[in-house]
Amino acid sequence: MLNNRSKSVIFILTSAILIGLLVYQIMSHSRENAAADGIVNFKLVSVDGKEFSLSDFRGKKVLLNFFATWCPPCRAEIPDFERFHRENKDVVLIGINIQEDKATVEEFLSLMGVTYPVLLDRDGKVSAQFGIEGIPTTFLIDENGKIVAKNVGMMTYEQLKKFAGK
Question: Does 47 lie in the same domain as 122?
């Protein structure tokens, strides 16, 4: 049989665990709602040193493609994304590289012939805001800044056109 001190310790530990789980659920839910409601914003610097914010593109459809240079499906879809960028100037395409150094990304973009803006999420905070759990992941953001679609996994040119409503 447990004494009163042991019961108190068990009660405190159980309470702490439950409160921790509750806080985690609230934080996780609010982050998901922020992304789903389109109120997530960010400021990141591009490979060429320009600062971009999601709010800079209000009034335009935006495709955000989260990727890494070492990711085979990411590498495979880049030529289709570049083609989409060249052929659909009414949609802003932005790549967001996750946690790699600038030199690695620059070399990769040059090798792949990428001309659309690529931003560096060196600390992974923007990826976390968007709830990225796998790459590549692409979001479609409408003219009002609302996230209207999400695709996890590689996309072909035709899939990208359909995804963007073209």
Answer: yes
